[in-house]
From TrEMBL:
Name under which the protein is recorded: YCII-related domain-containing protein
Pfam family, one: YCII
Domain of life: Bacteria
InterPro entries (alphabetical): Dimeric_a/b-barrel (IPR011008), Sec-metab_biosynth-assoc (IPR051807), YCII (IPR005545)
Coiled-coil portions: none
Domain YCII-related: 1-84
Family the UniProt entry places it in: Belongs to the YciI family.
């Protein structure tokens, strides 16, 4: 089942930059293991959206909690909701690192 996590980041740009490489490595690992569907920051830098593939909400919450940003207390708030993919077009996705 898919779970969308709407995450608000702490207002600590220096620490976010410091932990970003570990955060991205963690997400890449989840992606390769089929545990992450899609992820990316909001354009205003206030947070990000993560869509996890998990058996239940508790497992999705654990995936979020193990993120290096979360471990460094850079997740100021998180809202997790079950999510259903209805429409998608990979033609409209541009990956920007």
């Amino acid at each position: 089942m898919k779970f969308a996590a709407f995450v608000e980041y702490a207002n600590e740009p220096e620490r976010i930059a410091q932990f970003r490489p570990a955060h991205r490595a963690y997400l890449q690992d989840l992606l390769q293991r089929g545990r992450l569907v899609i992820a990316g920051p909001f354009a205003d830098g206030s947070g990000a959206l993560f869509v996890y593939e998990a058996a239940n909400e508790s497992e999705a919450a654990r995936l979020a909690a193990n993120d290096p940003f979360a471990q460094a207390s850079l997740f100021k708030g998180i809202v997790m909701k079950p999510w259903k993919l209805v429409f998608a077009s990979t033609d409209n996705l541009t990956i920007a690192l």
